[in-house]
Amino acid sequence: MEFAELIKTPRVDGVILHRPFMPTVEGTLCLTGHHLILSSRQDNAEELWLLHSNIDSIEKRFVGSLGSIIVKCKDLRVIQLDIPGMEECFNIASSVEALSTLDILSLMYPFFYRPMFEVIEDGWNSFLPEDAFKDLETMTDEWRLSDVNKDCTVCPSYPPLVAVPKDVDDDTLRKVATFRHSGRFPVLSYYHKKNGMVMMRAGQPLTGTNGRRCKEDEKLINATLRPGKRGYIIDTRTINLAQQAKARGGGFESEGYVESIKSNILQESLIKLVEASNWQTHVKEILTTACLAAQCIDREGASVLVHGTEGTDSTLQVTSLAQIILDPACRTIRGFQGLVEREWLQAGHPFHHRCAQSAFSNSKPRQEAPVFLLFLDCVWQILRQFPCSFEFSESFLVLVFDHAYASQFGTFLGNSTAERAKLSLPEKTVSLWSWVNRPQELERLTNPLYEANSLVIWPSVAPQSLLLWEGVFLRWNRSSKCLDEAYEEMVHIIEYNKELQNKVNSLRRQLAQLETEDPLLQTLE
Amino acid sequence: MEHIRTPKVEQVRLLDRFSNKFTNGTLYLTATHLIFVESSSNNSTSAAQEIWILHHHIASVEKLSLTTTGCPLVIQCRNFRLVHFVVQRERDCHDIYSSLLRLLRPVSYQELYAFSYNPKQNDQQREEGWQIIDLGAEFERMGVPCDQWQLTNVNRDYKVCETYPRDLYVPITASKPIIVGSSKFRSKGRFPVLTYFYQEKKAAVCRCSQPLSGFSARCLEDESMLQAISKANHNSRFVYVMDTRPKLNALANRAAGKGYENEDNYSNIRFQFVGIENIHVMRTSLQKLLEVIGTRSLSMSDHLVGLESCGWLRHIKAVIDAAIFLSKAVTVEGASVLVHCSDGWDRTSQVCSLGALLMDPYYRTIKGFMVLIEKDWISFGHKFADSVYTIYSTWCDQLDGDPKEVSPIFTQFLEGVWQLTEQFPQAFEFSEWFLLQIHEHVHSCQYGNFLGNNQRQREDLRMRERTHSLWAYLMSEKQNYLNPFYSLAYSETHPVLEPSTLPYHFKFWRNMYHQFDRSMHPRQSILKTEEVGEEATESTDTERKVEGSSGSESRKQSYGDVCVARGSCRSVCDNLLFTQWS
Questions:
Q1: Do A387 and B522 touch (CB under 8 A)?
Q2: Selected catalytic residue, list B206, B341, B352, B563
Q3: For residue B60, what are the CA distances in angstroms to A304, B390, B436?
Q4: Which of A308, B133, B174, B461 has a CA that sits 20 to 30 A from residue B538's CA?
Q5: How far from the centroid of its chain's Cα atoms is residue A412's Cα?
Q6: What does the pLDDT read at residue A112?
Q7: pLDDT for res A525
Q8: What integer is the mean pLDDT of B433-443?
Q9: What whole-number distance in Å separates Cα of residue B150 and Cα of residue B164?
Q10: Structure-derived torsion over alpha carbons of residues A171, A177, A178, A181, reported in degrees to the nearest 10
């Protein structure tokens, strides 16, 4: 298919762009296969480049012969374009509508994008499961990397390689997979170095109404427990939805209890969520559950299994947030990328389905839900409470959010590792991480306040402590000039502080040297 | 001292407000403070926690019914601290309870802490402390007296208006008979006087109380007074009259022989209602707010719905809206403005001071902010003794106070300033902590500044001879209140602030209303990195600093990024100096 078929009017002159808190721009509007471009054709003036995949909804309005279209984007930006001429306006609107709803993955922009920067490190190879397992091997020998899913038949949403208890063989895994929703048998999510406790995740058990049991499933879960220790199973759903599940302590029977946490499926539209403030409720609940999981592991020294229904949404929110709380490595820029790779991309969060539409879309939500954004919001809340413990700043989270919804990079395309492999994404597209992991980008995304903090960080989940994430929800509706200036000032102070610190150190050294060299001074003292 | 029956009770349990945690310790009752000292045995890793509560800070004491662990005692403070003790023996609890009941209700001014507080200063130092703020110099700074405005001695002996200060500035053309006539036509004799002069446009901000107009009464002198104010400004043909009340309230006042200016009777005025609610509405609103945020295991939606329905932030917005109107009228239109409410000491003070803060960068400095409070609140007779001493208690027998007068008007002003500091992080020399410290001492009765309702009362009590000034103390502690982001260049390029009043700019001031609930605050700042991670999700950890009004402590609190850089930067500078000299 040719894009040209969809573009009815490629170019309109004299279009006026309105954005909140910005002066209006008059220029020429161009439509390409992937972009909506507005250029004033002046040297210093800013151009607008908007990916069609970023457009969430489009509205037309006519006043006389002047038409305007209101473009609402997935990054929550709203712009208005005044287009002279009814026909042009109509054509533009329908072209954009058609281009932005094109649901053919192979026509997406990442397949056409060629990087204008030098790739230092190919992001597609930065976070392979093999490498992550090598790190695990240095800490424990109780786990093995299984390739039971190598052709993605046992569990379509899992990657080919998963970490499982050493004593459990592949046949057992196959049987367990039939007992778990979507074949998502329990796999290792996180190993807590401090006490050797683990966090696993899975799909819900298919116990049915007659309480079917699965010997192999129980065996697998028991294999993760230390003798005499209890384990916890955290079900992220409401008690009504939740099934009873049992875990046995090694040697003797002990019932792991089911913790039920409310978590709706999050299919309401986003803005409605924010307005009705349910959004904040979800933030609080997800954080509370993550804290609970982290507490079981760190405080009670118990292993945890987390599951929801499918184990691809709220489960991943909980497991990844618990790791942010527990593991200082996840609070670095690179560690966070690894976390997103491991716990979201490779764990099979259906990004393509979930991010197909955002807050403004009028079409009926099918599988869209801002699950990933909710996770990022929770990370931001923790970042706010521990401003010095994260290597990355808020802008990194915003960047990841933007690229999850619309991007020139292939990282967030597709729903699972299997789908990505089928599309040959690593060969045909550029990874977001290739772009991020370059010195000039890293510098921009680094938190100036960062000081490595090796401790577990417990956030407050009181409603008074949780804030609206203005950097995302009000990004386009506020003038952030004052805040930006203050931020620059802060960076300046920190740099000055470092400078002084160095000066102090060198003076101290000088002094120490003088004292040793000068015997007179020593006698005087 | 004779009121203290039991000076020391051991084995007292302090319950955490928001979780099931508690600490054991000993309770001491002194003539000025109630002190809780954590027993060191149960928490050897950190220093023993101490909580100092000044008796004057206590708004209410409540003894709950006996439980299995002992007798609960709940103490609510005016700085929004709430402590919940459990005393093992009921008799001890009752002793403390009845002692406190007596101690927190002083029967004479002499019992106030300010009259016994001694920061080891001699008379000369104390006198110098009181001289830090000089309102005469402040008016000179504004450019008054000038060819249009003069100092009048009509109130030298507080004869014309006893709630005004002695020195008042009026238009040159306002003669003594006009002033006296006008004052008779105004509630409590509070006639229009100058409070801020915008030199650039020669526009004046004046304040007064409501006219006694009733349904039709007129007063020629009052009309000439407004005429004189109008004439003193050549840039504008008219003067704005801002009635800060909702129209309905003003109408109701007419039946009582009061009311508002009739535009037909006054030449060249533009009359405007602003719609800030009265002290009773504000008091209820704050009570509701405190109720909401004091709920244990509060859900997110209850929190947000509660915040919305108590209306507190809406009231703050109304005050700021009025200040913006005032600032625009003066700086953009160059018109003079006369502000009043009913008596002209609550809403009028809020609007005049916030308006001046928007217009004049000087008031955004530490010294300037003290001057502003001294001018618009203390000298113009905001009834601190009545309205601030109790915020939400129900005690009726206040020291010459009336519970109906109690209202968080000044707190609201401070919060308005805080909301502005959030929008303009570079515009203020002081940090949030400065505002909190002022709030603390408005209620502490430790310094003489806020005692009494007006200047006359303070003179009668010989406050300057017998007590110390808060401003001197704050000045000596100035280092702790600096905002690291403050930029002089910013003030030069943005002399007038134009805040946005979109609803999301008004935030819940956590550090004010949860100042003492550590579990609610951001967990980390550079100052306290070593503590990070020691807290469990729902815990409050130890409170290391001695709180209350013990004066000499410099209190460092971790509140977000703002103070992060400051402390470390300063300590490095100190280090540098030290190294060079050693």
A1: yes
A2: B341
A3: 46, 9, 21
A4: A308
A5: 10
A6: 93
A7: 52
A8: 94
A9: 16
A10: 180
- CB-nearest to B579 from A460, A493, A511 is A511
Q: What is the pLDDT of residue B181?
A: 95
Predicted pLDDT of residue A521: 59
Task: Collapse the DSSP code of B294 into the 3-class scheme (helix H, G, I; strand E, B; otherwise coil) and give the result.
Answer: coil
Coil, helix or strand for B495? coil
Overall average pLDDT of the B327-331 stretch: 96
Q: How far apart are CA A236 and CA A258, in angstroms?
A: 10
Residue B460 structure tokens:
């009668």
Determine contact: B82 vs chain A, CB below 8 A: no
Pick from A175, A188, A189, A204: which is nearest to A310 by CA? A204
Is residue A335 within 8 Å of residue A363, measured between CB atoms? Answer: no
pLDDT of res. B582? 27
Residue B478 DSSP label:
G
Q: Which of B349, B382, B372 is nearest to B454 (CA)?
A: B382
Kindly calculate the radius of gyration of chain A based on its CA atoms and give it in whole angstroms. Answer: 26
CA distance A377 to chain B (A): 15
pLDDT recorded at residue B121? 84
Positions in chain A whose pLDDT score sits under 70 = 1, 227-228, 237-277, 361-366, 519-525
Helix, strand or coil, per DSSP, at residue B1: coil
Q: B183 is written with which tokens?
A: 């004052």
B301 touches A at CB < 8 Å: yes
- Coil vs helix vs strand at A232: strand
B403 preceded by cis ω (within 30°)?
A: no
Contacts of B365 (CB under 8 A, 6+ apart): B429, B430
Q: How far is A142 from chain B (nearest CA, A)?
A: 29
User: What are the tens digits of pLDDT across the range A43-68?
Assistant: 777 789 999 999 988 998 888 778 89
Report how far Cα B485 is from the mean position of its chain's Cα atoms: 23
* Secondary structure of residue B231 in the 3-state scheme: helix
How near does any CA of chain B get to the CA of A421, in Å?
A: 41
pLDDT band (50, 70, 90) for residue B512: very high
- Write the residue in B301, B423, B561 that is nearest to A387 by C-beta: B561
Written as six digits, the tokens of B458 are 């303070």
Q: What is the pLDDT of residue A309?
A: 79
Higher pLDDT, B245 or B48: B245
For A271, counting Cβ atoms within 10 Å of its Cβ (0-12 exposed, 13-18 middle, 19+ buried), the class is middle
The helix (H) or strand (E) run that includes residue B471 is helix B470-476
Contact A368, A267 (CB under 8 A): yes
Q: Helix H segments across B104-175?
A: 123-131, 135-142
Q: Which two tokens stand for residue A419?
A: 């789908």
- For residue B189, the model assigns a pLDDT of 95
Exposed / middle / buried, residue B20 (Cβ in 10 Å: 0-12, 13-18, 19+): exposed
Closest Cα to residue A390, out of A289, A459, A488, A479? Answer: A459
Above 60 in pLDDT, residue B529? no
Question: What are the binding residues of B for substrate?
Answer: 278-279, 341-347
Helices marked H in A83-240: 86-100, 129-137, 170-179, 215-223
Judged by DSSP in three states, B169 sits in strand
Write out the H or E segment, with its range, that includes residue B555: none
**Strand-pair partners of B76:** B60, B82
Could A493 and B533 be called an inter-chain contact, meaning their C-beta atoms sit closer than 8 Å? no
Q: Residue with structure tokens 């000076």?
A: B7
Is B341 one of the catalytic residues?
Answer: yes
d(Cα A56, Cα A273) in Å, to the nearest integer?
17
Token readout for A385 is 């409470």
> What is the helix (H) or strand (E) element at residue B73, kind and residue range?
strand B71-77
Contact A58, A96 (CB under 8 A): yes
Q: Whose structure tokens read 């922009």?
A: A109
DSSP code for B424: -
Phi, psi (rounded to 5 degrees) for B71: -105, 115
Mention every residue, 6+ apart, whose C-beta is less than 8 A from residue A5. none
